[in-house]
Design brief:
Layout (H helix, E strand, L loop, with lengths): L24 H6 L11 H6 L1 H8 L38 E7 L54 H4 L5 H12 L9 E6 L8 E7 L9 H5 L2 H10 L1 E7 L2 H4 L3 E4 L10 H9 L2 H12 L5 H10 L8 H5 L9 H10 L3 E9 H11 L3 E5 L1 E4 L4 E6 L8 H14 L7 E5 L5 H6 L2 E5 L3 H6 L2 E3 L6 H4 L5 H8 L1
Parallel strand pairs: 5-6, 5-10, 6-7, 10-11, 11-12
Antiparallel strand pairs: 1-3, 1-4, 2-3, 8-9
Helix pairs in contact: 5-7, 9-10, 10-11
């Protein structure tokens, strides 16, 4: 009781003075440094340790000269990153990621009755389907495995149907988590179509992941990037940043389901009522389930007796894909040579080349009976079949004829018979391709217009409008 004050009240607890506290964790710890620089070094401390160790290391001294401009006064940097002064060394490789928001084909439609605003009592759950591009087939009945994994959370529904700032931040976080050994990355980005709510954003980052740990081919198909695409409803196209990425000189296209929305052989089959049989073979061939040359001969044999003027009638039926005219016009104005390499038929390939200003047209030649002016159901034997190998060969030969480096070539297609030329070209784009092709192609886009290919060259909306005007 003797410790109490005369009034019987305990004294208050001691507290730090106001000038000793701050809102900064760093400042709170820097306040214990000596007010003036301490000149004593570790060597001096060790030399005098045996004589005056207690006095040399008093409570208010610091054996290391503090630097008020840095937090790590000891000189040891506790970080997983390499702190380097200045910019990265000249010549450090760069990668470019072009991010497209998928406005035409949302991955996360509100199909569940509990979440759909248009749901009615009694609605049934939708039949489970495999996302396009995630398996060789999207027919769940043909997949002899367990059901597909649940879809990731649709973050684009929360943060906006475009490439949002959080979407971009999430992508950079994923990229920075991949390299080994760790590096501090330099990154920059451009909105290629519009600054407000962009649909296309280009991200440049350097250095790329260590190829000993993660090759560029594996990076393109990395599970973290795939999941990011699913979560944000986007597509990511990764390219190495070189001068050849921006300056192309040769562009080759598939025809059916690429430059045009039709499959020509299916359209011919409608004339004789065998569309179903031909369409089934075509679908399997484009998915890589059948040998292309054998399947082509099988389908052509079903066309025996069709009038030879069928190609003239088909011209009014064929639909040129959205953006095909503009894309070809833009490439021509950039000085590129264009070619159509088609597993279809020569008369329509030549017609399409004339419509789009394409320089070369290579397709299959159907044999015609000169007496009856009908198709014989055979291919002209003197011309090679335009299969996957022949498309790649033609790409090589046309490039060689014009002295074009392979890094300056572009190939666009959708079928399994396009995969070899897609991998051979400097930029191979699977355009709204079959599921198997999307899995194996180096690059895939599923947009509404073929003009999107121009964004992969680093062109922005103003550049594209000037080219297609």
């Amino acid at each position: 009781m003797s410790s109490l004050t005369p009034a019987g009240i305990r004294p208050s607890r001691p507290v730090l003075r106001q000038n000793l506290s701050s809102s900064s964790f760093i400042h709170d710890h820097q306040q214990y440094k000596p007010p003036v620089p301490y000149t004593q070094t570790i060597g001096n401390v060790l030399e005098n340790a045996s004589e005056s160790f207690p006095s040399a290391l008093s409570r208010n001294t610091n054996p290391i000269n503090p630097d008020p401009k840095k937090v790590t006064d000891s000189g040891i940097i506790h970080s997983i990153f390499h702190h380097q002064e200045g910019l990265l060394p000249q010549g450090t490789p760069k990668l470019v990621a072009t991010i497209f928001y998928k406005t035409s084909d949302p991955v996360h439609p509100h199909l569940h009755p509990d979440s759909s605003p248009n749901a009615r009592p009694g609605d049934k759950l939708p039949y489970p389907m495999v996302p396009v591009g995630s398996a060789p087939t999207i027919d769940i009945e043909k997949i002899p495995r367990e059901p597909p994994v649940p879809e990731p959370e649709p973050l684009d529904h929360l943060y906006g149907p475009y490439v949002s700032q959080l979407c971009l931040t999430n992508f950079l976080q994923i990229i920075e988590s991949l390299p080994t050994p760790y590096h501090r990355m330099n990154t920059s980005h451009r909105c290629l179509d519009q600054h407000d709510q962009p649909r296309v954003v280009e991200v440049t980052f350097s250095p790329p992941p260590n190829p000993d740990y993660l090759t560029f081919a594996d990076l393109r198909k990395h599970e973290s990037i795939w999941r990011f695409e699913r979560e944000w409803n986007v597509e990511v196209v990764l390219q190495k940043e070189t001068v050849f990425r921006r300056h192309k000189r040769l562009v080759v296209f598939d025809m059916d389901s690429t430059l045009i929305q039709n499959e020509v052989i299916d359209e011919i089959a409608k004339f004789i009522g065998v569309e179903k049989q031909v369409s089934e073979i075509t679908e399997r061939a484009m998915n890589g389930e059948l040998d292309f040359s054998a399947s082509l001969k099988e389908r052509v044999s079903l066309l025996k007796g069709v009038p030879a003027d069928v190609f003239e009638k088909l011209k009014s039926v064929l639909t040129i894909s959205p953006g095909a005219r503009e894309l070809c016009r833009a490439f021509k104005r950039l000085g590129c040579k264009l070619a159509v390499l088609s597993g279809g038929f020569q008369p329509l390939a030549e017609w399409l080349a004339g419509e789009l200003g394409i320089d070369y047209a290579h397709a299959n030649h159907l044999e015609i009976d000169s007496a009856s002016q009908t198709l014989t159901g055979q291919l002209v034997p003197t011309y090679p079949i335009i299969d996957a190998n022949q498309k790649r060969t033609l790409l090589h030969s046309i490039a060689a004829d014009h002295g074009v480096d392979f890094a300056q070539t572009v190939a666009v297609g959708d079928g399994a018979n396009d995969l070899l030329m897609l991998h051979a070209a400097g930029l191979g784009v699977a355009w709204r391709a079959k599921s198997k092709v999307q899995l194996e192609a180096p690059t895939r886009i599923n947009g509404e217009s073929l003009v999107d290919v121009l964004y992969l060259l680093g062109l922005n909306h103003e550049d594209i409008q000037e080219l297609i005007a």
